[in-house]
Amino acid sequence: MAVPNLKQVPALSRANELNVEGEARVYRSMRYFWHVVAYSHEVTDKPVGFTLLEHDIVIVRLNGEISVFDDLCPHRGTRLSLGHVRDGCRLECPYHGWQFDQEGELTLAPQRADLAGQLRARTRKYLSVERYGMIWACLEDKPYFPLPEYPVWDDADFHYVAVTPAEDWKCSAPRRVENYTDYSHFAILHDGYLADRTVPEVPPHEVFRNDNRLENVQGEGSWVRVPIDSAAWGGKDKPADPYLRLHFNWRVFMPLTCVYDITFQDGNRYHLLFHPTPMGPKKIRNFTVSSRDFGDPAKADAELGDFVKFIYDQDRWVVESQRPEELPEDLTREMHVKGVDKYSVEYRLWLLELAKELGKPAIHVHEEKTR
């Protein structure tokens, strides 16, 4: 039997051996990209608080549109996410009733209504957009890459479900992306659901950059098989053969948004849009939209949402156990198998390029906000 092409590296201890500055660069670079901060259905007539990259923000609908601000009233530092929406168009602080408009400008300090328009008070507004049933935000004024693409969202043949609740994990966002795009664990950790343990070989595939995304294209005519009694694909017609056969393509819209395209041998299609939003260096929230063009739309929550959560539960304990918690900046710190780990290696190389360009320490300029 042929010996795999392996590169031997020193054994890792349980301690985090990643270069501290390299880790910080990757993390700092994340503020230049779009991140999911809520599902659309979660933001109704009340403000919603969230922590993005250790920065507290508030998400709110004003005049029917999404706005994202600092979760901080400039008067006495109260969380605006604890406040209220007034007349559908103003965000009110719960402490003293100061009100802010859609642009974050102060419109009313009720104790001195005569000063309206004179107080230099505002809460910072961030870029935001509502797309694919999700709210996206960026902490920088000029995102490095455009919003990820998910064209099946507008395809009438598909129905979808937002996988809720979006669970928080104790891991870094890049580690979770690598887990999501790791071919070789399917047949072992997800035996009988995403692949078959008796056929652990990784199918032929190509990996390449395409604009702002890293593509994985499975070889034409190659199929991954799962038993037909798997809970994975409720609502599908079952073949006479004891297995369903699937073809995987996926891409990462750098640095974190994963889009899966799964095609069955009978032509049915299944898609996933996934984003592990970094709440901190080692804490994420998993946001997922799952879509398909088969089965009963009324059963989507059970047959799509519950299955995705089941797979995530299988992954979670493994990903949260990984050391170092981040992806090592030095590729020789871990072992890579030729062909099998091709996608992971290319992902890490691109991630480090972005970190080198964007991950410089931030310089904060404090401005007077009130008078």
Automatic annotation (TrEMBL):
GO molecular function: 2 iron, 2 sulfur cluster binding; dioxygenase activity; metal ion binding
The keyword Magnesium belongs to this UniProt entry's keyword annotation: no
InterPro entries in UniProt: Cholesterol_7-desaturase (IPR050584), Rieske_2Fe-2S (IPR017941), Rieske_2Fe-2S_sf (IPR036922), VanA_C_cat (IPR044043)
Keyword Mitochondrion recorded: no
Record SUPFAM superfamilies: Bet v1-like (SSF55961), ISP domain (SSF50022)
Keywords: 2Fe-2S, Dioxygenase, Iron, Iron-sulfur, Metal-binding, Oxidoreductase
Domain Rieske: 34-137
Name of the molecule in the record: Aromatic ring-hydroxylating dioxygenase subunit alpha
Organism: Paraburkholderia antibiotica
The organism's taxonomic lineage, starting at the top: Bacteria, Pseudomonadati, Pseudomonadota, Betaproteobacteria, Burkholderiales
